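User: Structure please.
Assistant: Input sequence and predicted structure:
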Amino acid sequence: MPSHGGPTRTGSHRWRGLVARSGAWLDARVSVGEAIALVVFFLAVWVGKWVSDDGYIYLTYVQNLVDNGDGAVFNAGEQVEAYTSVAWFSLLSLLAAVAPRSWLGLPELTLLLSVAVSIGAACRWPAVERRATAIRSSAGRTIVCVPLALMAATYVFRSFATSGLETPLLFLWAITTIGWLWSFEPNTRRLAFAAGVAPIVRPDLALVSLILVALVAWRWARARRAGGAAAASNRDAAALVALAAVPLAVTTLVRVMVYGQLLPNTYYAKTDAGQGASQGLHYLADIAWRYGLPVVLAAAVATIVVPVVTAGGLAGIDAGGRARLRRRLLLAAIATVTAIYVVVIGGDFMHGRFWITPWLFLLGMLAGAGTDVASWAVARRSTSPGRLLGPSVGVVVTAVLLVTILPMGSRQRAADG
């Protein structure tokens, strides 16, 4: 016969086990430093929330569609697609149709949606960090998520986290795609889906779609050659083609039927501007030194060069190291292609906005590097003070970034005004 204390002790053990598992789950996903960076990012975004002139273009279309019944137009009777992102316009229209409009106007709606999507996107960085680190065990790791810290500390990211534009969706798409690329065995269907929705988020992301489609095709062909039970079939190929092509095909069909053209009007307006590469380089110089972009670029290049040099060449790198190197090279290729595009078209009239895409993929190259370096430094120290080296370096670097870069928001706003 069990004692009266048996069930109580069993329940206590189960409760402690649940708490322990919950604590491990939290520790595996968000460190104290990451939580601080997320709070800083949220507060900075919320305090600096705004809606730009182009943001009100979206709101005018939404108002004419949802409230006035004139359709997806800027002026009644004129079928012109003057917004950039089909996905952002569709999401705003859906929310405007179901939101309690008696107390929530369209500007407030787009601000709340922008903040929610931007913070949700930033919350993806901790998962990316853990996928990218070379240290597979969670024991003894010192998490230093450099991409999240830089995103929280940089004015351009915080400013366009609202603004009424589609940039929050760009954040979410880019960071999610980076996370999928950093997976140990990237899911080809996820990558095909990312390629398919990219032009709907922003038309210029079609460049990234081409790279992702090439990667998916290569992985499918490799699986096909490998044979066996896991061999890629024609059914798999059809699913990949559907995921990559159907979203863009449907959007293009609707666009042609409604507006009578293959691409948004904003594409024709920007490509016909003729500003050229000289203006694009000036656009690059406007942000490069202001936000320490050369330092970030040097750190990203170091994540490729240093492992090769320290290992005495590619032959000295293990299979896991070579896999991480290939991912960083792929992210570097995407960042380079998108950066060249921005320079060639001459940039944009909004400070740093078009540089967000290559910048995010550049940050993706830094994923895992901070944690690897900090954990290596801690492992090299056996004394208790020495074990604080990694966290101390992370705190000092984050503090310096916040102190030096956060005030640029007020300086930039004063310059814009």
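Residues 1-12, 15-28, 382-390, 406-417 have pLDDT under 50 and may be disordered.
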